[in-house]
Design brief:
Layout lengths: L4 E5 L7 E2 L6 E10 L2 E11 L4 E5 L6 H9 L6 E7 L4 E5 L10 H6 L3 H17 L4 H20 L5 H11 L16 H15 L3 E5 L7 H14 L3 E5 L3 H7 L2 E6 L2 E6 L2 H36 L5 H18 L23 E13 L5 E13 L3 E5 L6 H8 L7 E6 L5 E4 L12 H12 L7 H10 L16 H13 L5 E5 L7 H11 L8 E5 L3 H7 L2 E5 L5 E5 L9
Parallel strand pairs: 2-6, 5-9, 5-10, 7-8, 8-9, 14-18, 14-19, 16-17, 17-18
Antiparallel strand pairs: 1-7, 3-4, 3-6, 10-11, 12-13, 12-15, 19-20
Helix pairs in contact: 3-4, 5-6, 9-10, 12-13, 12-14
Length: 569
């Protein structure tokens, strides 16, 4: 998992101050290349005071690169960036820089370093006032008044409650406050970095995947904080569609080195984008039709009596192609995926009767994951399993599958089950193979006797957004998200009738997550049973009809999701 660290950055030497009537940040004609690849191609971007903007786009299209440029971490090849004088930018960056000799709470409290320095200055003033008289005392009293004003603006004297509230909101317990930073996991460091950043309260927040390592409760807390308590400007990269809908009022899509603006939240973006693409496609097809007619005329009459006229039309056509050629709109093709039919399982896929499970913590105490849980999962149901980090979601699934024995109670599996398991490791992938080779091997292994052509494997790869030369890439050169897509494609083509998906969208961009939702839909032909462990509320909303909620304290509740299920409710 990618980890982050927070920092509040001073103005970069690349920037110059602008008047308060201008945007708080303005970028103009930004160009940045990596070798022969153009990442940002003369991009313009502005962020107004108090504005909330979401960056979306396929992985690798320049979202994080542009955010680094705006934060001053990365210098563009050309272009200018300006910001208001004295603007404080808080950037959630991908390389944590936390003090190793401090506890978790001390590291969070470091966000108030300026406040602590003001208190020290005020203490010196009080000390000097004890012996001062006349003009010296008046000067010290004025300094005391100014320091009191600055202290109040920086958080005053009641910061302890605020620190505790933010740490609790991001999923930390009181027992963890005294943990040394060196003992924290990568996910805990990421959440601590986000906590420090929020406590600093900069004028602008630049957030790159702030929900990484947050459970649903933490995501809801962050939504509320950004929407109702933080009053500065926000620029956010996120694959959490619910967070984008709740917080941002404008979407900027990165595509082929360019930025495309859309008003509204993510839901509005999808609608407007579809309409724009349709309009662009129609204009493109109309122009191409016109070109074909002209080219046919030129071919027919280039050598005949109308050769002069044909030559003139050819010159005019060349000018039009050079000056007015419309670019073919970039489209995500409709999912056309024929999944192999799996054998029907028994009516009851898995059942549990009064099962319980605890584990021993490092401090010697027991943590109850679930207690006296009874459950029945029937064929064709889609279950979402949610709960806080560490609540035992994966352990529960492994217990249902018989991989982990319960401390008490009994589990049983139905007959004629073929289980497909998606985990975060992807150890089953042969990194020396190309995407096409891996998919062909997977399908042939899982469907013995079934002949598969390379074109069928290409169609499967295309359904999961691998196109052209990308399909010939070796797996060892793929990103975590790309490997996840290969694993999911192979899993869905393996004729399994029970799919276990453990955080399947963790490394997927939004288009890939939406493609997974399509592939799992009944309309696409998948009729098996699904268990999804996920904090992705949009995925659960789109796929699941049942919900299993672990509360982290041993409690577990199952419920049926009716129409328009919404885990955040």
């Amino acid at each position: 998992p990618t980890t982050h660290a927070a920092s509040t950055l001073p103005p970069s030497s690349l920037r110059h101050s602008v008047t308060p009537t201008m945007p708080v940040i303005a970028a103009s004609n930004i160009v940045l290349t990596y070798g022969v690849d153009i990442i940002l191609d003369e991009c313009d971007f502005t962020l107004e005071q108090g504005e909330r903007v979401g960056f979306v786009g396929r992985n690798g299209t320049g979202k994080t690169t542009l955010m680094k440029v705006l934060a001053g971490v990365l210098q563009p090849d050309s272009g200018t960036i300006s910001m208001q004088r004295g603007l404080r930018i808080g950037y959630l960056r991908q390389d944590p820089n936390l003090p190793p000799d401090e506890t978790l709470r001390e590291a969070a409290e470091a966000a108030f370093a300026t406040l602590h320095d003001l208190h020290k200055q005020l203490h010196v003033v009080y000390h000097d006032m004890e012996t001062a008289t006349g003009e010296t005392l008046k000067r010290l009293m004025k300094k005391q008044e100014a320091l009191d004003h600055d202290i109040e603006a920086a958080g005053g004297y009641a910061i302890d409650h605020k620190i505790d509230a933010v740490l609790h909101g991001l999923g930390f317990t009181d027992a963890q406050f005294e943990l040394p930073v060196t003992k924290l996991s990568g996910g805990q460091k990421a959440r601590l970095s986000l906590a420090r950043l929020l406590l600093e309260e900069p004028d602008v927040l630049l957030l790159d995947e702030p929900t990484n390592h947050l459970d649903i409760e933490g995501r809801l807390w962050l939504e509320n904080y950004l929407k109702n308590e933080f009053h500065g400007a926000i620029l956010m990269i996120s694959h959490d569609r619910y967070l984008l809908d709740a917080v941002v009022h404008r979407i900027v899509e990165t595509e082929q080195g360019r930025l495309i603006d859309y008003p509204g939240d993510y839901t509005a973006f999808r609608t407007i984008r579809a309409d724009r693409r349709l309009t662009q496609h129609r204009a493109y097809e109309k122009q191409q039709g016109k070109f074909r007619k002209e080219e046919e005329y030129i071919r027919r009459f280039k050598a005949g009596q109308r050769a002069k006229q044909a030559k003139g039309r050819e010159a005019r056509l060349d000018r039009e192609k050079d000056q007015e050629l419309l670019e073919r709109p970039m489209e995500l093709a409709q999912l056309r995926l024929t999944l192999p039919k799996s054998e029907k399982s028994a009516d009851v896929v898995a059942s549990a009767k009064e099962i319980s499970k605890t584990y021993l913590r490092e401090d010697g105490t027991n943590k109850v994951l679930f207690k006296d849980l009874s459950l029945s999962i029937t064929r064709g149901e889609r279950w979402g399993i949610v709960g806080p980090n560490g609540a035992g979601k994966t352990t529960l699934v492994r217990t249902l599958l018989g991989e982990v024995p319960p401390d008490s109670g009994k589990c049983s599996l139905g007959t004629r089950l073929s289980v497909g398991y998606f985990s975060q490791t992807h150890d089953h992938l042969d990194l020396d193979l190309t995407i096409i080779q891996q998919l062909m091997r997977t399908i042939q292994k899982e469907n013995p006797g079934v002949q598969i052509s390379e074109q069928q494997a290409r169609d499967l790869a295309g359904a999961f957004l691998f196109s052209g030369d990308d399909q010939q890439k070796q797996l060892q050169f793929l990103s975590g998200g790309e490997r996840a897509r290969v694993s999911l494609a192979g899993l869905l083509a393996s004729a399994r009738n029970l799919l276990i998906l453990d955080e399947p969208t963790n490394h997927l961009d939004i288009p890939s997550a939406e493609r997974l939702e399509e592939a799992l839909s009944l309309t696409n032909g998948f009729e098996g049973t699904v268990l999804i462990i996920s904090h992705d509320r949009a995925l659960i909303d789109a796929v699941c009809d049942h919900l299993l909620v672990l509360d982290g304290n041993g409690g577990c509740k199952a419920c049926l999701l009716y129409t328009s299920p919404s885990p955040r409710d």
